[in-house]
Amino acid sequence: MSKNPPRPRSTSSIKTVLSELDSSQAFRELLDSLTSEQLRNQDLLLSLAFALRSFTNLHRFLELVPVVVSRLVGVDGALLVPFQDDGSLWREQLHLLPLNQSQDLLKKLASFKNGKASGFASDEAQLLALDHLVQSHMPKAGIFSTSLVARGRQRGRLYVFDPCGKLVWSEVHRRHVQLVADLAGVAIENDLMLQQLRRHERVDRQLSIGAEIQAQLLPDHCPVIEGIDLAACCRPAFQVGGDYYDFMPMRPELIGRRRERGRWALVIGDVMGKGVPAGLLMTMLRGMLRAEVLSGLPPDRILHDLNQLAQEDLAQSHRFVTLFYSDYDPRSRRLRYANAAHNPPLVWRAQHRCVNRLDAPGLLIGLQAEAEYVSGEMFLEPGDVLLYYTDGVTEAPGLAGDRFDEARLIRVLEETCRSGLSAQGILDHLFLRLDRFVGNDHHLEDDASIVVLKVRETLTLPSVKSSQPD
User: Fold this and answer.
1) Rounded CA separation 306/249 (Å)
2) Which range, of 20-34, 137-151, 366-380, 396-410, averages the lowest pLDDT?
3) Which residues of 412-425 are buried (b: 16+ CB within 10 A; e: fewer)?
C-alpha cells in the first residue's frame, strides 16, 4: 500500500471531464430529440394513412395533406394543387398553408387560364408554368415540389416551402414529402374510381329499367290466330336493343273467336345501332305503327306513311330503320306484305318442300322523305312455315370467324321443317343451332330476333257464318 498522498487534479483535467459530461448529455438529449421527432413523424403518417382508409369525403382528406406535410418537414408553408380526371386544375380542391397567405395565390391559381384545359396535367411545359406561377408569388421562399402520381397518371402537384427563406432540407424530408404526395394521389384516384363506379351503377339501373320497359313493349306471348301456330323470341346483345316485332289486330274492337278469325298485322324491324338510343327510337316507331295499322291501308301505304311520320325524328338521330310489314287473313290464308330494306323472310312451302325468299323493293325508313314501297301477296298452304328474322341472326360470328349467313339459315330451316316440328320447336332448334355456331362461351354481337309462323296441317271445318257483320 503506497504511502504517497494522492495528487490533486489539475484545473484543466476537471474542465475536460465536465466537457465530456456535457457532450454525453447533449448527445443523449439529441438522441431523445431524434427519437421523439421520429415518433411524431410516424404518428403523423399513421394519422394520414388512417384518414385515407376511413374518410369517404375526399375534401376532408385533402385538407389534411398540407397540414401533415408541413409538420413532417418542419416548415410553415404547403400547397396542394390536385387535377381533375380530364387533367385540368381542380379549383374546388386547392389547399394552402399558411391561411393568411392563401387568398392571393389561390386567386391566381383559379384564374390560371392554361389550367382550365383538358390534358393540362400531361403537358410537362404546362406543369413547369404552374411551378413558375407558384414561385413568382413567393420569390424569396425556398420551395420543394413533387407530383401526385397514381396508376401512371398525374393527379396533382404538392409544394412545400419556407416563407422566410431557404429550406433546411434532407433526404428524409424528401422521402416524407413524396410519401404524403403518393398517399394523396391514391386518395384522388380512389375517389375518381368510386365516382365512376357510381355512374356505372346509375347507368346499369337505367338500362335495367329500359330493358324492363322494352320487354313490356314486345309481346309477352303470341296471340291466338285461327289456323296458325306462332312462336317468337328476341335476344338483345345489350340490355336494351333495337330489334322489334309485333302482332296487332287490325280490328282491335273484336273479341273472342271473331278476333282470332280477323286480320292481323305481323311486323319485324331493326334500328341501325344498339343500346338505349336504338331502343328508344324503336319504341317511338312502335307507337306510330300501331296507329297506322288501325287505318286498314295496304302494306305499301302503311310503310309510306310511317316513313313520312318518322322522317324528322330519324334524321335528327342520324339513324335508320329496316322494317318488314305484313298482314294475314286467316279465312283466306292470304298474306300481304311490303319491305323497307329488311332481311327478306323465308317461307317453307310444304307442298314443294323448298324454301323461298319473301321480298319486295323499298328503302329504309327515314332515309328519303318520298320513298315508295311495293306490296306483294301470297296464299299460304297447310304445313307452310314463314320465318321472320333480323340481321343479328345471319350476321352472328362463328368460332372460325365466318358468319351464320342466310344460306346456313335456309339449310337449318329446311332441315327443321322436314322434321314436322311445331312453331316453338322450330324456333328453339334455330336458336340452338345459332348458339352452337357462335359458341357457348360467346355472346351475340347484335340483337337477334326470330318469329315463326306455321300454318296448321289439320284444318278445322269452317263455322256457320254469323249474320252479324265483322
Assistant:
1) 18
2) 20-34
3) bbeebbeeebebbb
Q: What is the DSSP letter of 329?
A: E
Beta bridge partners of 158: 80, 146
d(Cα 384, Cα 185) in Å, to the nearest integer? 68
Residue 103, C-alpha cell as written in the block: 387568398
Q: Which of 299, 470, 323, 443 is nearest to 390 (CA)?
A: 323
408-424 tens-digit pLDDT: 999 999 999 999 899 99
pLDDT tens-place string over residues 190-208:
888 888 888 877 766 655 6
Spatial separation of the C-alpha atoms in residues 79 and 84, rounded to whole Å: 16
> Hey, is 234 helix, strand or coil?
strand
Please give the model's pTM, rounded to 2 decimal places: 0.59
The residue among 161, 194, 227 that closes a domain is: 194
CATH number at residue 371: 3.60.40.10
pLDDT single digits (tens) 378-391 = 999 999 999 999 99
Closest alpha carbon to 342 in 320, 314, 319? 320
Grid coordinates belonging to 261: 278469325
State the residue range of the domain holding 152: 35-194
Q: Which residues neighbour 59 within 8 Å (Cβ) at sequence distance 6 or greater?
A: 92, 93
Closest CA to 173 of 161, 184, 183: 161
Residue 190 and residue 309 in one domain: no
**Are 298 and 342 within one domain?**
yes
